[in-house]
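WARN retry 2 of 3 for item q-0093 after timeout on previous attempt; input resubmitted unchanged.
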Amino acid sequence: MTIKLLRLPFLALIKIVEFMRSNDRVLISFCSSKMEKLVKMVKWHIDSMQYVCHLRQTIIVLRSANRDYSGSFIIEAVYEFNENSEIFTDEISGWQYGFSKHQSIDQDEDSTSVQVLGETQRFSRMIFHNRIRNLFQTQPALEVNVYPNFELSELFIFEGMNNFRLCGDANHDTSANYAEAYFSKARNLNCAVVSTPISPGLSSRSKLTTAKYLYFENTSDNAKTLPLHFNGQRAIFHRCKCDRKTLVAIIQRWLTNKGFQNLHALEINSYGTLPHRFGQNLPEIDSRPWDRLRRPEVFENEYSAWKIPITQPSITIIQILKSRVFFEEKTENIDLVVNGTLLKFAIIVP
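OK item q-0093 returned
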Protein backbone atom coordinates (compact mmCIF):
# COMPACT_ATOMS: atom_id res chain seq x y z
CA MET A 1 0.00 0.00 0.00
CA THR A 2 2.79 2.40 0.89
CA ILE A 3 4.61 1.80 -2.39
CA LYS A 4 1.42 2.53 -4.33
CA LEU A 5 0.82 5.74 -2.38
CA LEU A 6 4.35 7.01 -2.97
CA ARG A 7 3.82 6.66 -6.73
CA LEU A 8 1.09 9.32 -6.62
CA PRO A 9 1.81 13.02 -7.24
CA PHE A 10 2.92 14.87 -4.13
CA LEU A 11 -0.13 17.15 -3.90
CA ALA A 12 -2.50 14.21 -4.29
CA LEU A 13 -0.59 12.31 -1.62
CA ILE A 14 -0.87 15.25 0.79
CA LYS A 15 -4.64 15.42 0.27
CA ILE A 16 -5.03 11.70 0.91
CA VAL A 17 -3.14 11.93 4.19
CA GLU A 18 -5.12 15.01 5.25
CA PHE A 19 -8.39 13.05 5.12
CA MET A 20 -7.04 10.04 7.02
CA ARG A 21 -8.08 9.22 10.57
CA SER A 22 -5.51 9.75 13.28
CA ASN A 23 -5.04 6.01 13.73
CA ASP A 24 -4.30 5.49 10.05
CA ARG A 25 -1.80 8.35 9.98
CA VAL A 26 0.14 6.83 12.85
CA LEU A 27 0.10 3.40 11.22
CA ILE A 28 1.40 4.55 7.83
CA SER A 29 4.19 6.50 9.55
CA PHE A 30 5.61 3.10 10.56
CA CYS A 31 5.78 1.93 6.94
CA SER A 32 8.82 3.95 5.91
CA SER A 33 10.80 7.06 6.78
CA LYS A 34 9.34 8.80 3.71
CA MET A 35 5.79 8.21 4.95
CA GLU A 36 6.77 9.43 8.40
CA LYS A 37 8.12 12.69 6.95
CA LEU A 38 4.97 13.06 4.86
CA VAL A 39 2.70 12.70 7.90
CA LYS A 40 4.75 15.32 9.76
CA MET A 41 4.11 17.80 6.93
CA VAL A 42 0.34 17.57 7.34
CA LYS A 43 -1.22 19.75 10.04
CA TRP A 44 -3.23 17.96 12.72
CA HIS A 45 -5.86 19.57 14.89
CA ILE A 46 -5.16 17.46 17.97
CA ASP A 47 -5.59 19.31 21.26
CA SER A 48 -4.68 16.58 23.72
CA MET A 49 -3.04 13.19 23.95
CA GLN A 50 -4.78 11.48 26.82
CA TYR A 51 -3.78 8.30 28.66
CA VAL A 52 -6.80 6.54 30.18
CA CYS A 53 -5.84 3.78 32.64
CA HIS A 54 -8.66 1.47 33.70
CA LEU A 55 -8.38 -2.04 35.18
CA ARG A 56 -5.34 -3.53 33.37
CA GLN A 57 -5.84 -1.52 30.21
CA THR A 58 -4.12 1.63 28.96
CA ILE A 59 -5.77 3.59 26.16
CA ILE A 60 -4.15 6.48 24.30
CA VAL A 61 -6.86 8.87 23.13
CA LEU A 62 -6.11 11.62 20.61
CA ARG A 63 -8.72 14.35 21.03
CA SER A 64 -9.59 17.33 18.88
CA ALA A 65 -12.08 20.11 19.52
CA ASN A 66 -14.08 19.32 16.39
CA ARG A 67 -13.50 15.53 16.64
CA ASP A 68 -12.35 15.42 12.99
CA TYR A 69 -9.06 13.73 13.84
CA SER A 70 -9.92 11.84 17.03
CA GLY A 71 -8.54 8.36 17.48
CA SER A 72 -7.50 5.85 20.12
CA PHE A 73 -4.91 3.12 20.67
CA ILE A 74 -5.24 0.31 23.19
CA ILE A 75 -1.83 -0.76 24.50
CA GLU A 76 -1.55 -4.47 25.24
CA ALA A 77 1.49 -6.26 26.66
CA VAL A 78 1.77 -9.77 25.17
CA TYR A 79 4.29 -12.63 25.17
CA GLU A 80 3.95 -13.02 21.40
CA PHE A 81 2.05 -11.21 18.69
CA ASN A 82 -1.40 -12.45 17.70
CA GLU A 83 -1.81 -14.19 14.36
CA ASN A 84 -4.25 -11.56 13.06
CA SER A 85 -1.95 -8.63 13.88
CA GLU A 86 0.26 -6.86 11.37
CA ILE A 87 3.86 -6.55 12.53
CA PHE A 88 5.71 -3.26 12.12
CA THR A 89 9.32 -2.51 13.06
CA ASP A 90 10.59 0.88 14.12
CA GLU A 91 13.50 1.67 11.79
CA ILE A 92 15.57 3.50 14.40
CA SER A 93 15.12 1.38 17.53
CA GLY A 94 14.29 -1.96 15.92
CA TRP A 95 11.41 -2.57 18.36
CA GLN A 96 8.44 -4.42 16.91
CA TYR A 97 4.74 -3.67 17.29
CA GLY A 98 1.67 -5.69 16.42
CA PHE A 99 -1.28 -3.66 15.12
CA SER A 100 -4.83 -4.90 14.77
CA LYS A 101 -8.32 -3.44 14.84
CA HIS A 102 -10.13 -3.43 18.14
CA GLN A 103 -13.88 -2.90 18.42
CA SER A 104 -14.49 -0.34 21.17
CA ILE A 105 -17.90 0.12 22.72
CA ASP A 106 -17.11 3.64 23.95
CA GLN A 107 -15.70 4.95 20.68
CA ASP A 108 -17.64 5.93 17.58
CA GLU A 109 -15.07 4.17 15.43
CA ASP A 110 -12.83 1.16 15.84
CA SER A 111 -9.78 1.61 18.01
CA THR A 112 -6.38 0.21 17.12
CA SER A 113 -4.85 -2.45 19.32
CA VAL A 114 -1.10 -1.96 19.77
CA GLN A 115 0.67 -5.08 21.03
CA VAL A 116 4.06 -4.72 22.69
CA LEU A 117 6.21 -7.59 23.91
CA GLY A 118 6.14 -7.88 27.69
CA GLU A 119 9.89 -8.03 28.30
CA THR A 120 10.50 -4.81 26.34
CA GLN A 121 7.24 -3.01 26.98
CA ARG A 122 8.72 -0.07 28.91
CA PHE A 123 11.00 0.92 26.02
CA SER A 124 8.40 0.02 23.40
CA ARG A 125 5.78 2.21 25.06
CA MET A 126 8.19 5.12 25.32
CA ILE A 127 9.19 4.89 21.65
CA PHE A 128 5.57 4.59 20.53
CA HIS A 129 4.63 7.58 22.69
CA ASN A 130 7.47 9.71 21.30
CA ARG A 131 6.74 8.64 17.75
CA ILE A 132 3.14 9.84 17.96
CA ARG A 133 4.15 13.16 19.51
CA ASN A 134 6.83 13.76 16.88
CA LEU A 135 4.21 13.54 14.14
CA PHE A 136 2.61 16.81 15.26
CA GLN A 137 3.82 20.26 14.28
CA THR A 138 2.24 21.63 17.47
CA GLN A 139 2.59 19.40 20.50
CA PRO A 140 -0.74 18.41 22.10
CA ALA A 141 -1.25 18.63 25.85
CA LEU A 142 -0.48 15.42 27.74
CA GLU A 143 -3.08 14.16 30.20
CA VAL A 144 -3.36 11.14 32.47
CA ASN A 145 -6.72 9.76 33.61
CA VAL A 146 -6.50 6.96 36.17
CA TYR A 147 -9.25 4.93 37.81
CA PRO A 148 -8.71 3.59 41.35
CA ASN A 149 -8.87 0.00 40.07
CA PHE A 150 -5.67 0.48 38.05
CA GLU A 151 -2.39 -0.88 39.41
CA LEU A 152 -0.07 2.13 39.80
CA SER A 153 3.05 0.01 39.34
CA GLU A 154 1.96 -0.43 35.70
CA LEU A 155 1.55 3.31 35.14
CA PHE A 156 4.12 4.81 32.77
CA ILE A 157 4.79 8.53 33.17
CA PHE A 158 6.56 10.22 30.26
CA GLU A 159 8.32 13.56 30.10
CA GLY A 160 5.88 16.46 29.94
CA MET A 161 3.04 14.66 31.71
CA ASN A 162 1.85 17.10 34.36
CA ASN A 163 -1.95 17.11 34.00
CA PHE A 164 -3.41 14.38 36.22
CA ARG A 165 -7.01 13.33 36.81
CA LEU A 166 -8.22 10.78 39.35
CA CYS A 167 -11.53 9.36 38.14
CA GLY A 168 -14.00 7.20 40.01
CA ASP A 169 -17.52 6.69 41.28
CA ALA A 170 -18.98 9.57 43.28
CA ASN A 171 -20.65 7.01 45.56
CA HIS A 172 -17.44 5.14 46.42
CA ASP A 173 -14.48 6.67 48.23
CA THR A 174 -10.92 6.28 46.97
CA SER A 175 -8.12 5.54 49.41
CA ALA A 176 -6.07 8.59 50.42
CA ASN A 177 -2.88 6.52 50.12
CA TYR A 178 -3.76 5.58 46.54
CA ALA A 179 -4.53 9.19 45.61
CA GLU A 180 -1.31 10.49 47.17
CA ALA A 181 0.80 7.81 45.47
CA TYR A 182 -0.80 8.62 42.12
CA PHE A 183 -0.38 12.40 42.17
CA SER A 184 3.12 12.07 43.61
CA LYS A 185 4.21 10.50 40.32
CA ALA A 186 4.08 13.97 38.76
CA ARG A 187 7.35 15.85 39.02
CA ASN A 188 5.71 19.26 38.52
CA LEU A 189 1.95 18.99 38.95
CA ASN A 190 0.31 21.55 36.67
CA CYS A 191 -3.40 20.71 36.71
CA ALA A 192 -4.94 18.18 39.09
CA VAL A 193 -8.58 17.13 38.83
CA VAL A 194 -10.18 14.88 41.44
CA SER A 195 -13.52 13.38 40.38
CA THR A 196 -13.94 10.92 43.24
CA PRO A 197 -14.28 11.37 47.02
CA ILE A 198 -11.02 10.68 48.88
CA SER A 199 -11.12 9.15 52.34
CA PRO A 200 -9.66 9.59 54.87
CA GLY A 201 -8.63 13.21 54.40
CA LEU A 202 -5.26 14.04 52.85
CA SER A 203 -2.54 15.71 54.91
CA SER A 204 -1.60 19.38 54.73
CA ARG A 205 1.59 18.33 52.90
CA SER A 206 -0.25 16.47 50.16
CA LYS A 207 1.11 16.66 46.63
CA LEU A 208 -2.22 18.20 45.61
CA THR A 209 -1.46 21.37 47.57
CA THR A 210 1.44 22.02 45.16
CA ALA A 211 -0.69 21.84 41.99
CA LYS A 212 -0.76 25.01 39.94
CA TYR A 213 -4.46 24.44 39.21
CA LEU A 214 -6.59 22.25 41.46
CA TYR A 215 -10.18 21.20 40.79
CA PHE A 216 -12.04 19.05 43.33
CA GLU A 217 -15.45 17.82 42.17
CA ASN A 218 -16.22 16.30 45.57
CA THR A 219 -14.10 17.71 48.39
CA SER A 220 -15.86 15.71 51.12
CA ASP A 221 -13.40 14.73 53.91
CA ASN A 222 -10.76 17.19 52.68
CA ALA A 223 -12.77 20.35 53.35
CA LYS A 224 -10.73 21.37 56.41
CA THR A 225 -7.25 20.69 55.04
CA LEU A 226 -6.68 21.25 51.33
CA PRO A 227 -8.35 24.69 50.95
CA LEU A 228 -6.36 26.00 53.91
CA HIS A 229 -2.96 24.72 52.74
CA PHE A 230 -3.31 25.14 48.97
CA ASN A 231 -0.16 26.79 47.59
CA GLY A 232 -0.89 26.97 43.87
CA GLN A 233 -2.45 29.67 41.72
CA ARG A 234 -6.10 28.69 41.31
CA ALA A 235 -8.35 26.18 43.01
CA ILE A 236 -12.03 25.26 43.09
CA PHE A 237 -13.48 23.02 45.79
CA HIS A 238 -16.99 21.75 45.05
CA ARG A 239 -19.22 20.00 47.59
CA CYS A 240 -16.97 21.48 50.26
CA LYS A 241 -18.71 21.82 53.61
CA CYS A 242 -16.29 24.12 55.41
CA ASP A 243 -17.20 25.24 58.91
CA ARG A 244 -16.85 28.81 60.14
CA LYS A 245 -13.53 28.08 61.84
CA THR A 246 -11.96 26.87 58.59
CA LEU A 247 -13.22 29.84 56.58
CA VAL A 248 -11.87 32.31 59.15
CA ALA A 249 -8.52 30.46 59.17
CA ILE A 250 -8.31 30.70 55.37
CA ILE A 251 -8.98 34.42 55.39
CA GLN A 252 -6.58 35.16 58.23
CA ARG A 253 -3.87 33.03 56.61
CA TRP A 254 -4.21 35.07 53.43
CA LEU A 255 -4.35 38.44 55.18
CA THR A 256 -1.32 37.82 57.37
CA ASN A 257 0.70 36.55 54.40
CA LYS A 258 1.34 33.21 56.11
CA GLY A 259 0.11 31.31 53.07
CA PHE A 260 -1.31 31.59 49.54
CA GLN A 261 1.80 33.38 48.27
CA ASN A 262 1.07 32.22 44.72
CA LEU A 263 -2.71 32.56 44.86
CA HIS A 264 -4.69 34.04 41.98
CA ALA A 265 -8.13 32.80 42.99
CA LEU A 266 -9.74 30.38 45.42
CA GLU A 267 -13.35 29.24 45.36
CA ILE A 268 -15.15 27.10 47.91
CA ASN A 269 -18.78 26.13 47.54
CA SER A 270 -21.16 23.55 48.92
CA TYR A 271 -22.83 22.49 45.68
CA GLY A 272 -21.80 20.22 42.84
CA THR A 273 -21.03 20.95 39.22
CA LEU A 274 -20.40 19.30 35.89
CA PRO A 275 -17.18 17.26 35.44
CA HIS A 276 -14.12 19.28 34.48
CA ARG A 277 -12.25 18.76 31.21
CA PHE A 278 -8.57 19.49 30.81
CA GLY A 279 -7.94 22.47 28.61
CA GLN A 280 -11.09 24.36 29.51
CA ASN A 281 -10.89 27.41 31.72
CA LEU A 282 -11.72 26.72 35.32
CA PRO A 283 -15.23 28.13 35.81
CA GLU A 284 -15.68 31.39 37.67
CA ILE A 285 -11.97 31.90 38.18
CA ASP A 286 -10.43 35.28 37.63
CA SER A 287 -7.59 35.37 35.10
CA ARG A 288 -6.01 38.72 35.98
CA PRO A 289 -2.23 38.58 36.55
CA TRP A 290 -0.95 38.23 40.09
CA ASP A 291 0.70 41.26 41.70
CA ARG A 292 2.18 40.32 45.07
CA LEU A 293 2.83 44.00 45.86
CA ARG A 294 -0.88 44.53 46.34
CA ARG A 295 -1.22 42.03 49.16
CA PRO A 296 -2.42 43.91 52.29
CA GLU A 297 0.05 43.87 55.18
CA VAL A 298 -2.33 44.52 58.08
CA PHE A 299 -6.09 44.13 58.24
CA GLU A 300 -6.92 44.70 61.91
CA ASN A 301 -10.61 44.24 62.71
CA GLU A 302 -11.56 44.83 59.11
CA TYR A 303 -13.62 41.72 58.57
CA SER A 304 -17.15 41.08 59.69
CA ALA A 305 -19.26 37.98 60.11
CA TRP A 306 -22.99 37.46 59.71
CA LYS A 307 -25.23 34.49 60.32
CA ILE A 308 -27.83 34.23 57.59
CA PRO A 309 -30.84 32.02 58.46
CA ILE A 310 -31.82 29.61 55.70
CA THR A 311 -33.86 26.44 55.50
CA GLN A 312 -30.90 24.35 56.62
CA PRO A 313 -28.77 25.13 59.71
CA SER A 314 -27.36 28.66 59.57
CA ILE A 315 -24.18 29.23 57.60
CA THR A 316 -21.68 31.84 58.68
CA ILE A 317 -20.67 34.18 55.89
CA ILE A 318 -17.31 35.93 56.17
CA GLN A 319 -16.64 39.15 54.33
CA ILE A 320 -13.36 41.03 54.16
CA LEU A 321 -13.61 44.78 53.88
CA LYS A 322 -10.86 47.19 52.91
CA SER A 323 -13.07 49.94 54.26
CA ARG A 324 -16.63 50.08 55.49
CA VAL A 325 -18.42 49.07 52.30
CA PHE A 326 -21.06 46.42 51.83
CA PHE A 327 -20.53 43.11 50.06
CA GLU A 328 -22.45 44.03 46.92
CA GLU A 329 -19.66 46.48 46.11
CA LYS A 330 -16.25 45.17 45.11
CA THR A 331 -13.47 46.04 47.50
CA GLU A 332 -9.91 46.75 46.48
CA ASN A 333 -8.45 43.49 47.72
CA ILE A 334 -11.19 40.93 48.18
CA ASP A 335 -14.58 40.10 46.80
CA LEU A 336 -17.08 37.83 48.56
CA VAL A 337 -20.09 36.49 46.71
CA VAL A 338 -23.17 35.08 48.46
CA ASN A 339 -25.69 33.48 46.14
CA GLY A 340 -29.05 32.70 47.71
CA THR A 341 -28.94 29.66 49.96
CA LEU A 342 -25.66 28.49 48.47
CA LEU A 343 -22.50 29.15 50.39
CA LYS A 344 -19.98 30.42 47.88
CA PHE A 345 -16.78 31.88 49.25
CA ALA A 346 -14.42 33.42 46.71
CA ILE A 347 -11.16 35.27 47.11
CA ILE A 348 -10.29 37.26 44.00
CA VAL A 349 -6.87 38.89 43.93
CA PRO A 350 -6.75 41.92 41.61
